[in-house]
Structure formats: structure tokens, C-alpha cells
Write a structure and sequence with these properties.
Elements (H helix, E strand, L loop, with lengths): L20 E5 L12 H19 L3 E5 L13 E4 L5 H4 L2 E3 L4 E2 L2 E6 L14 E4 L11 E4 L3 H9 L5 E5 H10 L5 E3 L8 E7 L4 H16 L2 H8 L5
Parallel strand pairs: 1-2, 1-3, 7-8, 7-9
Antiparallel strand pairs: 3-11, 4-11, 5-11, 6-9, 6-10
Helix pairs in contact: 1-5
Length: 232
């Protein structure tokens, strides 16, 4: 079902596009599973698209899709996705920079002096899944959920934790605000980005990147991340 997310068209600006930009989005973000964080992700994306529209003088038409229709090039000018920018995918699509980083972040107890993995030799590091980021002398311990992992860290069972930024930021902003902290930027390149069929909408991808850079410079993206409990 199609519906307009918003109309932010400045008629007096000669650079405004005449036609709305059709943006495909699967609000479940399959194959990712954000669980209870999904509404936070979708709220952040809606706010971010409004900010981009203001900067680039665009009209976006958001079109809901499912995993089987999201990559249909006849329906959309661009889509929002977690599709990794591997060589094979870059041959088919132009990729923007991440508008939401999803990589692993390092979490430690609130009063810990450690700020990098290199500060933690011979330490127990909690994980949700195996990662090559650990050195041979660091001891991994796997947990089934982000909540279980962060509880173990808060209770002193492990020295640090590596987990994706979204659950880490959301839980720490709420349940663990007085016990844990994130001490790194994302250590892996996973993220959400805008993509468009190769060579068909390069100016849109370029304008989207420029808008993201401007919003970062003006501290608006960090403010949106904080608003939606997706960053500190």
C-alpha cells in the first residue's frame, strides 16, 4: 500500500525535483531482527528522511514493501536496506553511506577505565555471536540475548561485551544507564543505507550523502539517535 510519508516541497526553489522520490522500505528490516527496538528504528528513519527532504528540497513518497518486493526496480527509485556493500551488490546498486551504524560496540562497566579491546588482554568478553575482533588471549563467552549479555556484564561475570550498537544503546539508555557505558564507535561496518539501481539515480545517492554529512556536522543525527534511544 502506497502512502505519502511527508511533503516538504519548496515551490520557490528551482532545484526542487518535480516528481516525488519513491522510497521503498520494509519496516521489519528483514533479515535483521531488531525485536523491541524496531519502533525506535522506524521512528528514527522517519525523522531522518524529513531532515534530508528539508536540506535537498525533495518530496519523498514512502512505499511499504516486504522482503520479496523490496528489490523490484520498477516500484522504487531507491530503497532503505541493510544489504551489505559487497562487490557483487555494488555491481547492481549505488550505495549511500550508512545513515544508521549497526556495527559492534564495546561496552564496559560504568566506572571501568578501559576504552579499547587492546586494554583487555586475558579477559572474558561477552558476545552474542563469534567475532574475529577478539585476540587469541581474549576469552569469548556467548549469551543468547542482549539483555542476558548486559546483565552478565553489569553483575561482573565478564569484563566487557561486544554487541551491535542498536540493542546496546537502547538497553543502556534504559535499564543499565547507571551501570554500563559504550566506549567505542562501531567496530564493524554493518549499517542501514540507501541504495538505488546502478547508474540510474546517482544524483539522488550523492545528495543523500551530502545531506547526511551536513546533519552530522550540525549534530542533528546524534540528537535523533539520542531521541530514539539508538545512541548516546
Amino acid at each position: 500500500m502506497r502512502f505519502l510519508l511527508f511533503l516538504l516541497l519548496l515551490a520557490s526553489c528551482s532545484s526542487t525535483r518535480e516528481q516525488p522520490i519513491r522510497i521503498g522500505i520494509d519496516t521489519t528490516w528483514y533479515p535483521l531482527d531488531f525485536g523491541p527496538q524496531t519502533p525506535f528504528i522506524n521512528g528514527f528513519v522517519e525523522d531522518l528522511l524529513q531532515e534530508v527532504a528539508k536540506i535537498d528540497n525533495l518530496t519523498f513518497e514512502r512505499i511499504d514493501a516486504n522482503p520479496t518486493t523490496l528489490y523490484d526496480p520498477t516500484r522504487f527509485d531507491a530503497i532503505l536496506t541493510s544489504l551489505p556493500p559487497h562487490i557483487y551488490n555494488r555491481a547492481k546498486y549505488d550505495f549511500s553511506q550508512n545513515f544508521l551504524d549497526l556495527g559492534l560496540v564495546l561496552v564496559v562497566p560504568l566506572h571501568s577505565p578501559h576504552t579499547t579491546l587492546s586494554h583487555l588482554p586475558n579477559s572474558l568478553i561477552g558476545l552474542l555471536a563469534p567475532t574475529p575482533l577478539l585476540t587469541p588471549d581474549q576469552l569469548p563467552r556467548l549469551y543468547p540475548t542482549a539483555a542476558a549479555l548486559l546483565t552478565a556484564l553489569a553483575d561482573g561475570e565478564i569484563e566487557a561485551a561486544l554487541l551491535p550498537q542498536v540493542p546496546a544503546a537502547t538497553y543502556i539508555a534504559d535499564l543499565f544507564a547507571t551501570r554500563l557505558k559504550i566506549v567505542s564507535s562501531p567496530l564493524t561496518p554493518d549499517g542501514l543505507h540507501l541504495i538505488a539501481p546502478k547508474g540510474q539515480h546517482e544524483s539522488l545517492v550523492h545528495d543523500f550523502d551530502d545531506a547526511l554529512s551536513y546533519l552530522k556536522q550540525k549534530k542533528k543525527i546524534p540528537a535523533l539517535l539520542k531521541k530514539w534511544n539508538l545512541g548516546s
